Amino acid sequence: MADKGIRNVTAVLLIGAVFSVATLAARLGAFHLPGNNQGYSPEQPIAFSHRLHAGELLIDCRYCHYGAETSRHAGIPASSVCMNCHTFVTDTLGSLRAEDERAKEEERKPNRMVSSELQKLYGALALDDEMKPTPDGVPAPIEWIQVHNLPDFVYFNHSAHVTANVACERCHGAVETMERVSQVEDLSMGWCVNCHRDVNRVGLAGRSVNASLDCGACHY
Amino acid sequence: MVDNTRKAYWKSLAQRDDGTIPLPVAGSEFQEVPESGGRGLTRRDFLAAAGFTFGSVALTGCNRAPVERAIPYLIQPEAIIPGRATYYASTCGACSAGCGMLVKNRDGRAIKLEGNPDHPDSRGGLCAVGQASVLGPYDSKRLQAPLLKSASAKWDAVDGEIVARLEAIRRDGGTVRFLSGPVTSPTMSRMIDSFLGTFADARHVTYETLSMSAIHRAHERTHGARVLPRYAFDKAEVIVGFDADFLGTWVSPVSFAAGWSAGRNADAPRFSYHVQFEGRMSVTGAKADRRIRIAPGELGLAMTHLASMLAHRAGAPFDSGSPAACPIDAHLLEELADRLWHARGKCLVACGSQDVDEQVLCNFINHLLGSYGATIDVQHPASPVENRYHNDDAVQDLLRELASGTVDALFIHGVNPVYDLPNGADLAQTLPKVETVVSFSDRVDETSRHATYNCPDHHYLESWGDADAGDGTIAFRQPTMLPLFDTRSVLESLSIWSGRKQAAQAIVRETWASRGLKPAARRGATHGTLPSTMVLQWCAPTRSASARSDRSRSSPFEPHSPCRMASSRSYSIRKPPCSTGAARPTRGCMRCPIQYRRLFGTITPAFRSRRLRSLVWPPATSSASTPATPRASSYPFSFNRVSTIRSSPSRSVTAGRRALASPTSVLNGSSEDRSWATTAWWERTPHRY
Predict the structure, then answer these.
(1) Using CA atoms in the order A8, A14, A17, A21, what is the torsion angle rounded to 10 degrees?
(2) Residue A171 distance to chain B (closest CA, Å)
(3) pLDDT tens digits for B512-526?
């Protein structure tokens, strides 16, 4: 009778294991501990390249993410910030040059070139290629996908870190090399606390700092 | 026999002795007893297997967090940084005190109200009612669109019917009545007057649930002017409250609390002494040095005894007749009278009664103690706006008119008379018979249920407006968020029905421009001066997600937004602090049933009329018989009949600045000089107590 029970358990466990593997198999590649989004790199509505803007063109992070020094959120730039440059810059340099070449060959004036990605930006603002508002266009904000996302039970303040001279790359990685942004660090509590301990020991940018290790500093 | 060489286990002595002890079998100590009759899976097996399976299913949840979107503005307003709250200075509209406040605003929603420390009257305080009023806009019971005969309608349809109806009334010379709470807004007052001015027979009737009518009428009898004086609790060393909950609900609790606590600073050279007579527990009574419990009906009796004791000390004639025995310990009252008499000139006796005779007694006591001119100011009274002279009798007249069917159109703003009035049930019977009833109520309440047209007003956090804080302080109200629903400012409604369509902002500007007040040039002006165009633009709140839903209508009244944010949303949208029904009690929170019943003097003990008839009033005094108070010589007006309550010319015309014209003369075109009401706070010396 006991043997029978054990046999039953074994059978059920095996079935369970097979079932679990079958369910998990499809997602095994994406397996993470709960809350860990390391490596997350979602496709964005507009293929904005940090490598181009921050890497090649050397635009400061805080030009667009201007809340970083003053607010708890670094902020996603409003479309109006993009338009500071993209009112005039409508396509990549390469395609503009190519069009110039073609125009010279065909002995005509070069056409206005608008890249397909920037088209989406102008569409959001309901502007046509000439930067004029379209009569029946409805402006609609761009819905970016948030990459770095902390749980709701954690309070994180960008301005506290940026003003204490924590470099952006320390948490966000080498964004200036990324075509599409991905999450480099795991943003776990252990990772936060380790950094807080380290900087208390060795200082930050040559200055001693007092990074809090209180639970209540982030969880309240 | 028992085999003693082996370890044996037995379960009973009989078992041991009878030698049938089974040999211990390894692993069989806990025998498997199949629960399912020996066949199939046992319960334990099932749980073990199921636990593993469920656990493995749970593991499949170890995946990416759900996709979160970050939606930035299309066009970033300069003043707004996501993650930081914006603050707008505005004026509280939860009661008629008009305290200054700072509205914390996040993502286009007002989320917290705090007092504005720059406001000269409330000085950074905001009472519990004011603090709670931030939930008002999010109340799920709010009307989200106008109603036409209890069915949801468009503004055009409602306006069309009302305008046609009013035209007919104008043509036939019909009767129009406007019923409201005390109107402290000069603009609102102006608009009601100009609206009613288009009819042959129109009248504005006001009443307040916590009526101050008795104080007005008592001062009319004693001082010849219907005023609600200003009380300086900070200057008083002995404070006596007769059922006046001045720290909680009475007149202007915030500024009174500030003054009261200033006089009770332990580090200051003096510390006030506060005695409270009351029939129910109030905040003020709890804070008093001595709280004396007394039935409301005996209040007048106690005051009569106190007045008699003080008159005796002052040598003033006071014929109290032979009042009934003192309802409280006479020694207590004698001691209080002593304290008051020793501190004369620095006393304040406040009476919260709705009974005019009791208020007259209170005035007499204050007069004996020299409080007038010292702690009580009738020269710069607290109610300069004409319509704040609400008159309880006028409401009863209106009810009679309604019952007799002579009223063609009734407008109801800011009050719920069916609920408030003692004879409200009768009103509920007569209201359906009135041909046109227009209610501005923000919800379907006891009164607006009977309205022909419900034209919901904006919540005050969504409105342009102004308020007279009660001491001549003019404070402006600006919208701190865009209207959530398809409501409309009452100012705009009245302007449309008067045939002159205007935006609320323009109406407020016009009021003050007509009084010589120009928009201030400096940015960030909060109150006292009308902000400039630029400020107004920046002050206009930004549009947010749910405000977008009803953007299809293009009203000319929408606050101008500098940023054309027709559809931008702020980053990291959080739910508005939406109420799910329990946010604001339908019946208001400042209303007290005890005071209701007393509203129209239904409780008037017989003793009072008898005693007071014999009271020599006003005292037939020569100057010799006036009490020898330290302030007597500086007493600014005769006690019998004061016809010259006015400020000195130097007060109303300050060099380099233009004083406001008298609200009275502006509103009524009257040439009567009542310029006591005319100086705005910034014209006066700032009174930091």
Answers:
(1) -150
(2) 19
(3) 888 766 554 333 333
